[in-house]
Amino acid sequence: MKNSCSLNVIAFSFSLLFLSGCDTFKKDSGLCKEDDSLLRIDGKSAVTKESFKNELQAMIGNMDPSMLPKETQRKVLDDMIRFKLFVAAAKKEGVDKDPEYKKAFDEQTERLEELLLSRFYEKTMFDKIDVPESDIASDYDANKSKYVKDKPGVLVSGVSFKDKDKALTFYNKIKGKMDEFASKAKKEKDGKFREFGRVSSEPAADYGVAMVPKSIKDAALNLTKLPSVDVVKDGKETWVIYVSDKKEASFYDLDEIKDRIAHQLKVNKFMEMRNKKQDVLKDDFKVEVNEDYFKNEDGPKMPPMPEKDNNDNGGGGETL
Fold this sequence. Notes:
Blueprint: H1 2-19, E1 25-26, E2 31-32, E3 37-41, E4 44-48, H2 49-60, H3 70-92, H4 99-128, H5 133-143, E5 148-150, E6 153-161, H6 164-174, H7 181-186, E7 191-199, H8 214-222, E8 228-234, E9 237-247, E10 250-251, H9 254-284
Antiparallel strand pairs: 1-2, 3-4, 5-10, 6-7, 6-9, 8-9
């Protein structure tokens, strides 16, 4: 009776494991290991959530992969499915035994090994570099004007009209309701609304601002009372611009920008160290270069330019 009860408990425990969706049992710990596969081929995990995330990250750089629409992510997985299926099929059909494949594999393996060794050797140099606090402080004092937190200048938006009279009509309508400029400008059927961002008299301060016509920039900077609207002629278009406010530049404190400066100084030191290390290694190893190959008389030559036939001007086209 006692044994029967124990068997029932064991059977019940296993049933809970399988009902919970776990299909891998970790024998060494006796714990159920959660499967994170997104793709299995012949029962074996081919793409995990982690490897899929890494694939997306490689595609989009610094952007968060989770921001991609699920439909886009699913299409990426479709490409990975095709890739993994071709790999599985190649192994099954013995492509990896083909002499040409083996030669290519050996060449690529050697190239990858060299690449990793070179990168890790550079990493050992980089990791040994120390940037003193005094260097960071000196760089900050010398370049403080570059470490801008808030952009200086005036905040400008505008709406363009091909018809000057329509521009003046809009101007007269909006000058008493400037706080409604954006909402009303966007609804103008005859005009095109545009945000210019914050512009300054100093070109270096226009960080990433879309190209602003000089006439609009000059008019915006010459306004003394803000907020204000103005009418500006630029080529064939007439603009009604709205300048809402003006800000002076503010800069990062040293503590806020310290890590960034330290990293950049470290990179600069590394580049200098790498060049010096190359010169040292040339003395440690025997380096021979076939310089004759790079001489014009022995190296690859450009084909001669065909002589121009003055009687042939391209099938009857006008000769310039």
